[in-house]
Amino acid sequence: MASGADPAWYRQFFDSFVGKDGNGQALTTPGEGLLGSAIFFLVVCFVANFVLIYRGLTKGIEWFCKWAMPALVICALIVLVRVLTLGTPDPAKPDQNVLNGLGFMWNPSTQNISLGQSLRNPEMWLEAAGQIFFSLSVGFGIIITYASYLRQDDDVALSSLTAAAGNEFCEVALGGLITVPAAFVFLGGSLFQGQRSNLFSLGFVTLPNVFDQMIAGRVVGFLFFFLLFLAAITSSLSMLQPAIALLEEGLGLKRKASVALLGFVTAVGAAFVVYFSKGLAALDTLDFWVGTFCIYVLATFQVILFGWVLGVDRGFEELNRGAEIRIPHWVRYVIKYVSPLYLLTIFGFWCYQKLPGQIQTIRQSLVAQLSIGFILIVTVLFTILIAQAVKRWDAAERAEKEVSP
User: Fold this and answer.
1) What is the pTM for the complete model shown?
2) What angle do CA 296, 301, 305 make, to 5 degrees?
3) N or C, which end of the chain has less CB nearby within 10 Å?
4) Would you give the end-to-end CA distance of the chain in angstroms?
């Protein structure tokens, strides 16, 4: 179904689809059947994730990523070529062309008052850092879990560089070059002015409007959202694996029991978000406090742990073992001094300027309070599981020392 270039229609369509205007009672679009049901796609993604997780690292996660990642890049390149060949779709608006769209994205503007205000906002820096930590799987155990499967002489330095460079290339070079110029060409730069534009709104509200006006837009739109689907599945699989590793290796549970327990916790969380979907209140609360705040705090803790507890010298000794490249010596000082100072400074300014407002928002919203309560319950649950796992590991270590000569 299409509605021309009316932005309000696309916003209304999306709000209805995700249940934002109906407290979880809608989550569907009239006349679309299963394909118009957000719950149907939620179930599909849930089942896909846990089937792949149940199959294990090699037959599940590795098998899926081997074909999903190349397919993702191919889809992105096809969409990018189409965006870069848009030219000037509307002759009546000659300034809205691809070159100006690229300039709008990359050229800094010293006259943009909104940009200056954003740069002085500590929450913007907190969220930017949280996005980087999320993208690179830092702060919530993913990289640490995967690193535990490496052999002693595996090249950690080169693997880290290629992973970080590949991730940022896909996000910034491909994702940015697709979304911002395409939106600029059809909707103009005013779309980004005077508001806090984010990838969520740009990707799911603005770009469907753009694809609807584009020649071959439905094919391009399918490829774009298919690559987002692949990216989402690969990300969610990596987020589930640390918990599975804890349940299996820490508590000694079998694969089936581990997947069932984690699936139950995940299903309860998903049902909670769906039921309190009105205004996306539960989703926004969980997204900020888990996906930004907690990741930021834990990543800061990891930086301090690496630089001051483990020690950069010992850390770089491990990093350089079996490495084809050498990390410059000055990076040690960045990790030990610059990174902790930057992260703690931003966090301090955020606590001073924004934390009282966040607390007030929670006090005024029952859904926000329930969301924080859910976070605390899950935290307590996994704290107990971690404590039991530590006891089990300690007992195994003592037993090994007793039998060793």
Assistant:
1) 0.85
2) 150
3) C
4) 74
